[in-house]
Amino acid sequence: MQLIDESLAIAEKEVGLSVRYILPFFTNSLISPLIKVMPFLLVYGGFFSANPSAALAGHVKPETFIPFLFLGITADIFFSIGYSTFSSKFMVEKWWQTMEIIILAPINKLSLITGIGLGDLISTFPTLVLFLGLAYYFTPLGFLDLIKVLIIFLLLFMISLSIGLITSCAALFNENLAPFFGYLRVIISFVSAFYYPIEVLKTDKLGALGQFLPVIATFNPLYQANFIIRAIWFEGITPINSVIYVLFFAIISPIAAVYVFNKLWSTIGIQGY
């Protein structure tokens, strides 16, 4: 019960901070994602306009590429927010030299993950409604399947938050690692195939790397979450093995993240004060 109360209190604070200024809140939630996905819409749209009978791998077809991209941008947003939210918050607290207060506060560190995650989840609600609504408009699906998709998005978000906590606390204790984790975010996004089918990574032009990248992507739980979402949305099937794989990471990653956080704090401390 205490965990829930602490999480809700943290979430309430995070939501309050997010909606202080309405215009930036809605532009970040709605306009920025549209700008990000627009180049892919133009590329796919131009390709299928010139080749109306063509079909790329996966679910990238003339009648499905738009919802394919809208589902991808939604997953990418959840990943990006989860990966970066702790980094921005921790660096602000470090600058104000108040990080120790947060760390030494008598709250469960799992409350920190769930509270901040819940706050960010509520803040991204307009984005979720916009893109899932547009995807539903182009390719409707049943209510039960929609609930399954939302659950998988939630699991993807929890994994992203946990990865973000690990990388952010490592960068907090040693800021020299921050650029590396910035590149790591790009790599993870690349092998998560948010905007293209995994078959794009299978290319002979890259030699051995072209054979290795799809294997990495297959073991990436974020890609598996994407795979589940699109399989449910476009095919009406739920790949159980992938669900078990993603669920395992969603359960174990917060525990691992809190352990790493506490371990780094107790052995290294914050550098740069």
TrEMBL record:
Residues annotated as domain ABC transmembrane type-2: 24-264
Entry superkingdom: Archaea
Transmembrane region(s): 21-45, 65-86, 107-138, 150-173, 180-198, 243-261
InterPro entries to which the protein is assigned, alphabetical: ABC2_TM_bact-type
Keyword list, A-Z: Membrane, Transmembrane, Transmembrane helix
Protein name: ABC transmembrane type-2 domain-containing protein
